[in-house]
Amino acid sequence: MKSEFDVIIVGSGPAGLGAAFSLLAANPACRLLILDRNQYSSGGLRNDCKMNFSWPIGFADTVWTEVQAKRYLNQIETFLKPAILEKHDIDTYRRRADRLGVTLLEIRQAHLGTDGGLELIKTLCARLTALGAELALGEEAIAIDAQARRLTTNRRELSYDDLLLAPGRAGFAFLQSVMKTNGINYVDNSIDVGIRVELREERYPIVQDYYDPKFLFHKKTRTFCTNSRCAHVVQEKYQDNAGVWYSVNGHAWSDKHPANGLANFAMLKTVGLTQPLASGQAYARALGEQAMLLGGGHPIMQRVGDFRLGRRSTQDGFCGDLYDFEPSLPSCVPGDLGLAVPAKIMRALWDSLKLLDTIVPGVLHPSTIMYYPEIKTYANKPVFEDPASFRAIPHLYLAGDGAGTSRGITGAWASGIRVAEAITTLKN
Known about the structure:
About 30% of the residues lie in helices and about 30% in strands. By secondary structure, the chain is α+β, with helices and mostly antiparallel strands. The protein has two domains: about 1-85 and about 110-185 and about 380-425, FAD/NAD(P)-binding domain (3-Layer(bba) Sandwich), CATH 3.50.50.60; about 190-375, no CATH class. Strands 1, 2, 6, 7, 8, 9, 21 and 22 form an eight-stranded mixed sheet that branches. Strands 4-12-13-16-11-19-17-18 form an eight-stranded mixed sheet. Strands 3-5 form a two-stranded antiparallel ribbon. The chain starts with a strand and ends with a helix. The model has no long low-confidence stretch (mean pLDDT about 95).
């Protein structure tokens, strides 16, 4: 059975949602379908739901200008009406950072927590349905014939006038397969590789004044996605044609939940594979598989105290004396990061952690846990036929983290709006 749509959007994360609302605002009669392989609306809004409203956070400067980004950020803020978090007493931290050659960015942020993000998704999906959009959750896009403008799912065959692919980081491999099939050139030669650090909140007190502090260190290393109040480390599954591997991530519930006294953040290093040009996705998988090998099919974790002594962590070591909290991801296997993390990457991460411990003393307490791997595979870099609209080939657009046009909720939402504006202009 064939269905006819003006626009089909694959992916119901921020990029897809931003495009959908923009398309329907411009043309309420637009025949719009949003597909997602999951039984629920997915994407960054589900995981902690931290939103940044300052340039350049979340925007790839290769495809955005500051003027463009700020214009879209204003639109997004007006639409979502987020409660911007206050920051207090961060000058001391900034002065310490400056003396070490470290940059502390001051970002306008909002935080809903995972439960708040789920409520927002529910509200947004209801609004889209009321506006006439069709949401097909649990329906997976399988193949795309761009020349015929035909999309095949696990349930039916669909035709469209325009197609937006916005599958997010989890759809990285799917997006690559579509680009290969339809002759769209791309590279995916850079990724972020790092660790998730978990510690008692009292040993990272900056989070009381600045919820998600953004530190930029030497060697393309930075903090990312800080969580506190009621924070947890989680395991994420990545799957492609070569198999399954796991990464870790962090999230937190909203202030409606009782605090658990823990905080976590990622320390990430950007890695570019250029000589010879190699696949970041393949490298990420290799790192993930190596960690799983050492962890018996799971990510691994190590206490800072053990790492400093050059010995592996053991289950018995996660108790008593200097260790005073339970890992929030107990399925991780105690081990030795030195056997899993490439030496050059580990040196950059450890050097940055030592600098951070000087800025915020307490970070490198012996009980602090380092989880590995945390890998961000959002670095597809398509060769766009029209970079201004993110159009890859006629009638097919790519947006969001999976397409390399954004790095986060607000950047992804903005990239969706940018595509929607281009589609609307062409139709008019």
